[in-house]
Amino acid sequence: MPLKKISKYTPQTIEDIEFNFQYLQDTIDEGGGGGGTGTVTSVAGVSPDGTGNVPLTASNVGAVATVAGQRLITTAEGTKITAIDQVYTTAEKTKLTGVATGATVNDTDVNLKNRANHTGVQTADTITQDATHRFTNDTDIAKLSNISIIKSTGWFSGIIPVGKFVAPGKGFSDGTVTGLTYSYWFRPKFNCTGVQFLFPNWTMGNSTGGAAAEGLGLNPVTIAVSIYNVSTRDVFFNGQTSITIPPGGSAKSDPSPYNFVAGTNYNLRVSVTVTTLGMKWPLGLIPQSTLTEGTFPAGTLSGGTLTNITTGGYGPFGIIAKPNTTPTFANIGLFGDSIFDGNSNGGTGIQLDQGWGRKWLDLINVPWVKFAVGGDKSLNHTTDGSFGFVSTYSTGIDIALTNYGANDIASATVFADVQAQYLKWWTTLANSGMRVVQATVFPRSSFGAPQEAIRIQLNDWIRTLPAPLWKYVDVADVVETARNSGVWKSNLQTDGTHPTATGETTIAAALPSASFFLP
Question: For the chain, first and last CA: distance in Å?
Answer without folding.
Answer: 100
